[in-house]
Structure formats: C-alpha cells, structure tokens
Design goal:
This protein has 281 residues and is an alpha/beta fold. It has one domain: UDP-N-acetylmuramoyl-L-alanine:D-glutamate ligase (3-Layer(aba) Sandwich), CATH 3.40.1190.20. The protein is 27% helix and 25% strand. The protein is built from six helices and twelve strands. The strands form three sheets. The chain has a six-stranded mixed beta sheet with strand order 10-9-8-11-3-12, with helices on both faces. Helix 4 links the parallel strand 8 and strand 9. Helix 5 crosses helix 6. The longest helix has 15 residues. 41% of the residues are buried.
C-alpha cells in the first residue's frame, strides 16, 4: 500500500460548496501497510521477505521504488492487472488533515490469483525465522490465504505474530502472538474493556478462544498476565500475506503485503511467549 500526501495551505472557501480550497505546494509518498512493517524490519537489521498483491499501475511502480530505497526486495509481489494498488491519499493543510481519499479493491483474492499468492507464501516461508501478518481487511489476508500461511509456518516450526482484523479473528487460532487493540479485543469478545477486571476477562478469553499458546514452542515459558491492550489509534499500514525470511547469505527478499525477514545477526532473546497459565478462578 502507498500512503500519498498532498501538502498545502488554505486561504479561501470554495464558491461551489462550503469546503476549503487547498493550494497544493508539495507531494510525497511513503510505504503503508505491510510495506511499512517490512521497511521497519529492514531498518532493524532483518532482511524482510514481503508477499503481497499489487496492481499493474503507476502506484505499484512508486511502491517498488519506495521498497528499493528502504532495502526491501519486491521479488514476491504478485501482480493482478484487474486490481488497483491500494493508495491512501491524504490532503494536509497547515499540519491538519483535511480529507483522505482511498483507491483500493477489497474483494477476497481467489482462483488463480490465490494460487499464485500461495506459491509466493510457500517460497518465502521455506527459510523464514518468523511469520508476521498485518491484516487490514483488503482482501489478501482472508481464511483461505491464512490457512495456507499458518500451515506452512507450523510445518517449518516458526512463530506467528498477527496484527488482526476482527472479522477474521477465529482464523488466527494457534498463533504465537496476537496484538488487537482495546476496542478490537472487546468487540470480538462481546465485552467492553473499562477496567482491570474486564481487561483480564477479555485477554484470557481471547487466549482460550484462539489457543494462543504457541510461544511455548519457541521461547521459555513465563507466567504473566495478558499485556495491557493498546488503545485504538491510526497506524499507516495495510496488510497482505507475509513471512520473515532468513538466509545464510543476503539475497533478494520479497514484495509487499506480508512480511518476511532474515536477521543479519541473531537476537539475544527469543520472542516472548504468550501467557501459559490463567489466573486461578
């Protein structure tokens, strides 16, 4: 996904409608969605393998240039000429966002396109250290592609980290780490998080519902309470199927959408595991 910004100033109101007229002074692009995740991983010393679906359009070319500038390969991008590359355009005047316009297709990927996406997932996860899924409900991450990715992750014994979409919550069963914000967690559990008691009830309920205890396979188990949920906030990202790729020697990774990365040096500590023992009832 491409985050596009139009920067300008307002000095008058349109005579056509009661809206400000923004005089554009400059434009800029940045990576959004899983592309942003992959760029951050690259900055931390990993080599991301990014799997995604993009269109055959100018926005896809701008996205590829942005990936190259951030050291992320576009080798696993899957091109669909019938689908536009997701672009979120924000018009900003005097440091205030005036309006946002989205160009995207949100239908689920299926048929031959899903087969090509699955093949890219298989290739990236074949030598991955971890799988990261950022689900933004744009049609690439859905139960079909998730099943393929999670099956491959289990086959290779790698941890799975998911930034979820509420509508797909039950498709994340068995993942290692799940990071819903406070509103998302309360919504899927049917309970509003308003205090410590409701937070713990929602957190342990989600863990039990999704059997999110896979961290014990990848890290030394520690007993602790669920991490306090994040409050809802804007994050410039749009997800696609993904994986974290590792190689003995640096090679080209993959495109945008999901995230894969190889590490240039091993971290001292493994990924923290999810809570393994609920509090006594």
């Amino acid at each position: 996904m491409v985050d596009r910004y139009l920067w300008g100033r307002v000095e008058r109101i349109s005579p056509e409608a009661p809206v400000p007229v923004v005089e554009i002074e400059r434009e800029s692009d940045s990576l959004g969605g899983a592309g942003n995740v992959a760029a951050n991983l690259s900055a931390l010393g990993a080599v991301p393998g990014l799997v995604a679906v993009v269109g055959d359009d100018d926005a896809a070319q701008r996205l590829r240039r942005q990936l190259a500038e951030r050291g992320v390969s576009d080798a696993a991008l899957v091109v669909d000429a019938a689908r536009p590359t997701t672009v979120k355009t924000r018009i900003i005047a005097h440091s205030q966002q005036v309006v946002r316009a989205d160009r995207e297709a949100r239908g689920d990927v299926n048929g031959p396109l899903l087969d090509r996406l699955g093949g890219a997932i298989d290739r990236v996860l074949a030598d991955a250290e971890a799988l990261v899924v950022s689900d933004y409900g744009k049609g690439v991450v859905h139960p079909g592609s998730l099943e393929r990715a999670l099956t491959q992750a289990a086959k290779h014994g790698i941890p799975v980290c998911v930034d979820p979409k509420e509508s797909h919550i039950d498709s994340y069963r068995g993942v290692t780490v799940l990071t819903p914000n406070q509103l998302e967690a309360g919504y899927v559990q049917g309970r509003r998080v308003i205090d410590e008691e409701s937070l713990l009830d929602v957190g342990w309920g989600l863990q039990k519902r999704l059997d999110a205890r896979g961290g014990a396979r990848h890290a030394r188990a520690r007993r602790h309470e669920p991490v306090r949920a994040r409050r809802a906030s804007y994050a410039p990202a749009d997800g696609r199927a993904r994986g974290l790729r590792r190689h003995r020697r640096r090679r080209h990774g993959s495109g945008r959408g999901g995230v894969g990365a190889r590490r240039r040096r091993r971290p001292r500590h493994r990924v923290p595991c999810s809570p393994t023992t609920p509090p006594a009832s």
